[in-house]
TrEMBL record:
It is found in: Cytoplasm. The keyword Ribonucleoprotein does not apply. Its cofactor is Mn(2+); Fe(2+). One of its GO terms (cellular component) is cytoplasm. Pfam families: FUR (PF01475). GO terms for biological process: negative regulation of DNA-templated transcription; regulation of secondary metabolite biosynthetic process. This is Ferric uptake regulation protein. Keywords: Cytoplasm, DNA-binding, Iron, Metal-binding, Repressor, Transcription, Transcription regulation, Zinc. Fe cation binds at E98. Its main location: cytoplasm. Belongs to the Fur family.
Amino acid sequence: MAGLRPTRQRVALAELLFGGPHRHVSAEQLHGEADTANVNVSLATIYNTLHQFHEAGLLREVAIDASRSYFDTDTSDHHHFYVEDEQRMIDIPAESVEFKALPKAPEGMEVSHVDVVIRVRRASA
Ligand SMILES: [Zn+2]
């Protein structure tokens, strides 16, 4: 549990999150899944747990805008398509995005990672 106390709720949420293939999930989606699985947790607890998992390095957070974040169970380097009309993330392998020039990090700082989110929508016919 990456140094986190394995409370019943954390274990149940970890099972929902990590029990299958890699995926991207919002707090609201996970809350719905918890409900369906009869795991009784508040949305606030879901938020706290997701942020604790994120801080423990188990999840990567991908912010779409100020009010919407997805949590990615794949913490390796990669980028994302965000399908706007379906509110869904699709992975882009790290090597398919190339940067011609990146600014140097400010004095005394280093780049931690670079996130690219490419927003897409259904092409109109
Ligand atoms: Zn991803």
